Amino acid sequence: MPDEHEVVQVIERAERWMGAQRWFGDKSRALTGLGVEEFVDLDGDVGNAALAIVRCTFDSGDDARYYVPVSWHDGSDAPSIRDALSDKRFLGWFFSGFRENRTIDRGGQWRWSRHDGDGKVLDGIDVHHSRALDVEQSNSSALFDNRIMLKVFRRLQPGINPDLEVTRYLAESGGFSHVPALFGTMEGEFGDQRYVLAVLQAFVPNRGDCWGWFGSLLRGLTESDLETAVDAIGLLGQRTGEMHVALARPTDDPAFAPTVIDAGYAEQTLDRVRRELDETIAMVRQSASDAGDTDALEAGLRDRLASADALVGTLCIRIHGDYHLGQVLRTLDNDYAIIDFEGEPSRPIEQRREKFPPLRDVAGMLRSIGYAAGSIRLEQLDRHRLDLVGTWERQARDAYLARYRSVIDASGLPLGPGDAESFDSALHILEIEKSLYEARYELNNRPDWLEIPLSALRHLAGGNPM
Q1: Other CB atoms within 10 Å distance of the CB of residue 278
Q2: Fewest Cβ atoms nearer than 10 Å: which of 26, 101, 152, 377?
Q3: Considering the entire predicted model, what is its pTM?
């Protein structure tokens, strides 16, 4: 049976295995080496399994750390590692850590903590009914007894994890119930660095995320379905407004206390979007042959970015930060649960914990609605179906904004400009910013989809919402 040293050596030679994992978030860089920084052999607890923190080096850029629980087969002279989350025995042991408030002191400290109050929830779970879920990209998940979900964070950054922080705040403040309840956390403390390694949450029975759900709905859309499909987006606008109101309430917690946007912040926002415009237009020119169209696009967008004064006097709050249809579950009762408050995982935690205008989330969801319609158009459906999808997109946008504004207006909180013209002006800038990001992403990753954000930018350059 291999000893700890041999297993560590296998991990440190497993660049190909690491790079092939779905959760590995650095596939755009060449992986040049692995080093195991923390390692706990669990032989006495769960057989051939271990917890590891692995440092990855690349041909460019900074190193990255990943949380990599591994297991291997008995009797192998040269062990072949695999992801331990695929092992039911390991999952049962991992879950029991939350029940026990387990702590392992080996090298650093690995600490499980339960958050289910009287213990009735976790103690009632049958861990023999567990399975890994193939539903996420940057993290990993497992389901226990069809009631509790474990989320394991893979790419690690020291500090306060915003997904845990925001979800816990919303649940404990009692202001918004459309997030999964929190039942446990696992943390690692190594030297002077602390990492959130996993969270245990309620499983929300669902019909899938809204990207897939609305995509299926739009592919089969008929005139009789149109009103239902529009109303469904309207409800999402209402839930978005309720989430922002809950995050904007006065609090003594400095991490969540709202701030007021002044002229300096508004000008910084405008400068940032102008820089992104310069970068995006340069990339488009390198890839496109129609320079005249690009010139007109750039001129129109610059005209639309004349001022961000409409944001002055509104609030900056903690927001979702990476808000789109894939981050929302369609529940079995035809409502929504909002998930994954991590923000953009590639950004440093400090940036992901910043406060922003809530209209940034709104712009992200509106663009996601546009992408849902745009992706259907790429499938070359018949003209009648395409016209229906276009009608849905326009009406869905209006319904989303109407329900969102009704909630924030009723709250009395300045979550956006009060009059319609200023509201549209502020939202316009943030939609341009999001569409510019999308254009750069598609140029680098999916050139065949570039027309979706370019079409949006053309409408925005003309002063139109879509």
Answers
A1: 13
A2: 101
A3: 0.92
Distance CA 439, CA 284 (A): 8
What are the pLDDT digits (tens) for 177-187?
Answer: 999 999 999 99
